[in-house]
Design brief:
Shape of chain B: globular
Structural class of chain A: mainly beta
Largest sheet of chain B: 6 strands, mixed
Number of helices of chain A: 0
Structural class of chain B: mainly beta
Oligomer: heterodimer
Radius of gyration of chain A: 13 Å
Order of helices and strands of chain A: EEEEEEEEEEE
Helix content of chain A: under 10%
Strand order of the largest sheet of chain B: 2-10-9-4-5-6
Order of helices and strands of chain B: EEEEEEEEEE
Chain lengths: 119, 108
């Protein structure tokens, strides 16, 4: 079955970076875009950006430009999201989620990765 | 960016009742690019409706989507116990692909 399995929880200090992975299975990896969406505790969702695993093209939300990097490894069907210069406001659950095209709905979500930024 | 506003913030209803949730876009949005998600505590969201009107695979027909101008509506015809959750709308027609703040459907 289609699955997105994310890496485990992280605790980071302010100013550090975090890299979260998302391993896809059950479908052709390069046929679907991958999004990253975060949810702060008790809050709604914030779309961070997306990557096309076929050509590694990315589209980042302006808010995260310069701080986020999304990459992929086609040999392992894994995408990565790295966020740098962490601050306390980055504490959130980070989700990867796929869509079948650039302007298509997200249909499958990963289980989420909790990232805590604390001194 | 397109701002989505959801109302009400909380809806208190009993099982068997009808739920009507609203999502308003700050600017014109093609129906093709509006989705609804359900989220339960501690879980990832689940796609319910895409393209404003189409039910996702496996979604019961008590869930339906509609549109009037820049207002989109999710209707749950008869609430089942498992439907009490938070519902979010999202637009994916204009980057950044924004979400509404959510409507919590709670048991009255």
């Amino acid at each position: 079955q289609v699955q997105l399995v994310q890496s485990g929880a992280e605790v980071k200090k302010p100013g550090a970076s975090v890299k979260v992975s998302c391993k896809a299975s059950g479908y052709t990896f390069t046929n679907y875009y991958m999004h990253w969406v975060r949810q702060a505790p008790g809050q709604g969702f914030e779309w961070m950006g997306m990557i096309n695993p076929r050509g590694a093209n990315t589209n980042y939300a302006q808010k995260f430009q310069g701080r986020v990097t999304m990459t992929r490894d086609t040999s392992t069907s894994t995408v990565y999201m790295e966020l740098s210069s962490l601050r306390s406001e980055d504490t959130a659950v980070y989700y990867c989620a796929r869509s079948s095209g650039y302007y298509e709905e997200i249909d499958i979500w990963g289980q989420g990765t909790m990232v805590t930024v604390s001194s | 960016e397109i701002v989505l506003t959801q109302s009400p913030g909380t809806l208190s209803l009993s099982p068997g009742e009808r739920a009507t949730l609203s999502c308003r876009a700050s600017q014109s949005l093609d129906s093709t690019y509006l989705a609804w998600y359900q989220q339960k505590p501690g879980q990832a969201p689940r796609l319910l409706i895409y393209g404003a009107f189409s039910r996702a695979t496996g979604i019961p027909d008590r869930f339906s989507g509609s549109r009037s101008g820049t207002d989109f509506t999710l209707t749950i015809s008869r609430l089942e116990p498992e439907d009490f959750a938070v519902y979010y709308c999202q637009q994916y027609g204009s980057s950044p692909f924004t979400f509404g703040p959510g409507t919590k459907v709670e048991i009255k």
